[in-house]
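Q: what does this look like with pyridoxal-5'-phosphate bound?
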Amino acid sequence: MSSPLAIARESFADAPAIVPNVLDRSALDACFLGPYGENDSLLEKLVVEFLRDHVYWRRNFHPEDPPAIPTRAAQQPGYQAFEARMRRELHALSAALKKSVPFHSPRYIGHMASDLLLPGLAAQLLTLPYNPNNVSEDAAPVTVELEIRAGLQLARMLGYPDDPARADCAFGHLTSGGTVANYQALRLALALKAFPVAVRAAGVPDIGVPDEDWAAFNLGTGAGIALLDAWQRWLAAQPERDRREWQARVQAQRIETLGLVDFFARHPSLRPPLVLAPVTAHYSWSKGMKLLGLGRAQLKLLPERGMRLDADALQATLEHCLRDRQPVLLAVAVLGTTEYGTVDPVDRVVVARDDFAARGLAFSVHVDAAWGGYLATLFRNADGSLRTRAEVAAEFNHFPLPEVHAAFAALGETDSITVDPHKLGYLPYGAGAFICRDHRAVALLSEQADYVFDGNGASGYMERYRRLGQYIPEGSKSGAAAAAVYVTHRVLPLDHAHFGRLPAQTVRAAEAFYARAQRFARELADVVHASVPFPPDSNLVCLALNPAGNEDVARANAFVRSLHDELRCDPRQPLQLKEFFGSITTLRPEALGIADLHRIAGELRLDPATFEADADRLVILRHTLMNPYLIDAENGISYIDRYFDYLAMRVRAQVA
Ligand SMILES: Cc1ncc(COP(=O)(O)O)c(C=O)c1O
């Protein structure tokens, strides 16, 4: 029989979401607090309502228990002094926070941050006083399930199987951010790659373990999971005493028990595997390699073409690895690069994985979609099916290029994905997510050796993952963040007609920005050479600038840096003195490749020979166009036009 708690949980999480077919303009007006705090009374109503609700909950727990804090306490001097001290510090904090970066404003086009979605903000505020700890169901009977369900919501958006009744259902969990999600990808890929080697070393009979280490280390994700399954079934069929012994034998051979040094010493025909990632990969990959003990030297950065991973270079590197018997752990594709918003050819990486697995060099494919993950909503129908390129393109001028559509269409065939609700999901920080296509592999991460029985149906999907702390890199973690993600996805389902309306606005803004940048370049041709180095794949647009008459990269960089000084946060100045906020990044010759280097230098009339030791990269402006109010239809204001007018003024002032 279900417990009352289970009934309550089911009735909340299983209730069908009430959503209209498409979101109209007026519904979008209710999504955010707004640049002017327009929806203040809506948020206030929600906060007060649910704070009161929380208090009633406390009072109704055991109403027979009298209040422990006396009603007269508030009149006592100690109480009042404490309250005064608290207010003073809170006022000081509130005053200091006025120097915060105005992410909510359409004048902010710097980094990957914007306004927060009200359903998420309200769900987070409402959950905080309950303080659930999503390490396990014991400390978070409601929100741990919401986290698992949020993982399934994201899995569906990405094209992974999301029905927990399926043996190969996906699994996802939240992390503190994209950095930890990327680390989880490394951890899982290594566990799965090394497991068949451990089973072989332990001498497990009858389950089809390859007969040499290289083959065992190159089984690949699908066959690796099948082997794990076979091992679990075989073990379950053993008598109790033997079972424990076999379990201990395999455990003793695992890379997680031995550590890298001992594992590779015992398997001299194997070398530590490489991770292949594009040069534009986020620095979290380097951190992850160090944390895992594989070392930064095992991270091989591959060149780009048009700021997208060069699939031919990937192919050549893999050929080399196959020839050298150099194992590969993971190939990383980035879906929305941190600096340029470009989309790597995920489809071609998947094809390379399958081709090379057939030739004996197996590796997993991870997509770092920390930034671009939620753009996948544009490509999904409400029933989870993929939209054609023509259907998606109907709303835009250029988006999505065929390569971009192909990359999103291939997501469902990858092995794992990072996607950050705290970026394009418009939710508060502390919400990254790691999703893997087939949950069964996750058993290998368990701190208690439950990989022994997982997959046997010994416990259901939900029951297993309610012990979330077993599988995640963190321990204690915020249940309030999970509530925010889950509730937001319920209010705005992750398809093109609902959540997709938000990224659609950002892509349209990027298209408008791109067109306006080209006009800017024409209009200011007498004072500055300006170019967008790469047409935007998504919603991040860069602008390279060089004062007319200059050919020297170092001087162009100084010029852009001084423009950026006017666009950057400066806590020593009142915020209001800033007209706009932008950011900068760089173009490095080794990342660009010689052809693009010469093309961009030509557009800017720079001498490529001036890329030298003191100016080994070109500094450019970078704009993240995620604010929903960049084009203010209500007042007929384009903050994009205003930005370019402002930039034109600053450029003219600089060159004068
Ligand atoms: C592509 C990509 N991956 C990973 C990260 C790291 O995410 P976080 O800062 O949430 O840890 C970022 C952050 O900007 C990113 O853009």
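The longest strand covers residues 540-547. The pocket of pyridoxal-5'-phosphate is lined by residues 112, 177-179, 182, 282, 284, 334, 338, 368, 370-371, 420, 432 (CB under 6 Å).
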